Model the fold of this input.
Amino acid sequence: MTDFRQTFAATDNLIVAPGRLLLDSGPQPGMAALLRNGSFADIGAMADLRARHPAARRVELPDHLMMPGFIDSHTHLTQSLGKSLVFGEPSEIFRRIWVPLEGSLDEHMVYLSSKLAALECLRGGFTAAVDAGTRSAGHIGRLVDAARETGLRLVVAQICNDLGGAAVVPNRATILQAAETHLAAYQGDPLIHPSLAISIPEVASDAMLRDIAAMAGAAGAVFQIHVNEHLVAVERSLVAHGRRPLEHLAQVGALGPQTLIAHSTLVTPSELNLLRDTGAAVAYNPVASVWKGNAVAPALQMQALGIRFGLGTDGTRADGFRLMDAAETMQRAGYGLAAGDSSCGGGWLWLDAATRMAADASGLAGVTGRIAPGLAADFLLVDLDRPEFTPSHDLAWELVRYGNRDQIDAVFTDGRLRMVQGWPVDWDARALMAQVREQASPAIAKAPIQRIHPTADSLMATRPA
Done:
């Protein structure tokens, strides 16, 4: 059995030769990757790499798949302390649960929540995540600290609402200055990538929507916004503007290649054309649709139209394999069954949507998402010596339908080993969990959360015998 901690204690100038290497052309045997300075320096057949780099150390892992790490194109790291409070609740839980919870978190609780969520991300094979921004009062630095300490690559947003939806809503000049400062703060950072966000269109003025989108675009950063997720929000927009939310963003000039739309589940044909024509990207969040949404994003139609999209969790559960399975399943249930579409995009589509396509949607295409020379060495080693992959006839499909996070033996970001069999190698996750167990309940108790239903546990206790 491989001792991953010892084998990968040093990864610079190291050739990794897995049984299969997941490249753009699919999972390939006989291929290897050279790691150097935190990046993939060379890719090729093992014999060729040995010839080109004779001084490099080599490790052979014949029973493993080496694949790009998953990228969560939409999540909320500061919601992890209350994650199961939303089960069974009706839509727009952000108004009754997430905004009150996040707004009540102090600096320490932002850190604990973010580090717990980052732990879950890495355990689930996510080497990168796009955080939509914390609504707490100015504690984004602690969220960044948590990502750095765990090794999670993070696209982190500064929320720029000027009409509400956050713990503190500054004036316009203060918001714009904070946005500029945020964009400048992480230039050249190996793991942290700045982004700007407005939570939903109705919590920002038209001028702020336009200006923040333009500022992000000029900086080469992503502009994040939740749009067309719930029917009530679509109707509010129609009442306020005579336009649906996506139409309103287009009208004010806030749609463009820098724009990352979370959800886009309730979209008309003309709105799909807007996404295509403006180059905007979508975070397709299938588990969120199952758990609390009003609809499922038409991801297959988006693909056919050339609309950029990647998979996101929306903070639901951090398991990249189960996310791919949910993405394919929801397209099958929502569209494929009625149309007699038995492939629903094929296994490769969902592998791409969880890695390469998610990197593009997240503004990280030049950084990660593929195993290719020059990109960051963010990757997973997946154990193929499992019943689920025996015998193997079509590994791409098998990863989508049989994959699970307990099959991930090792997680790497920026060329460094971060996780072995679900646990970090250089910090104490169980000590963190003990802190969370001790401190989460008081934090939840002081937040003005409004639940519609009691918990399932409490209802079970009152059931007649």
